[in-house]
């Protein structure tokens, strides 16, 4: 699995991270605690072999309702 993940382009990993956050943010039972949601998203990014979670544009974070949540990196 790790060998396969190492072949995936960074832009695809970034897109997967952002999509993961967007999907789970829309799930009301999960998204109540945004700090925990971001912790889980960052675990997901580590599972893809990333040491540092991808950054997301500020305007996208604003639309997701995740502005200024600890653990998120912005562009």
From TrEMBL:
Highest taxon of the lineage: Eukaryota
Keywords: ATP-binding, Helicase, Hydrolase, Nucleotide-binding
GO molecular function: helicase activity
Protein name as it appears in the record: DEAD-box ATP-dependent RNA helicase 26
Natural source organism: Noccaea caerulescens
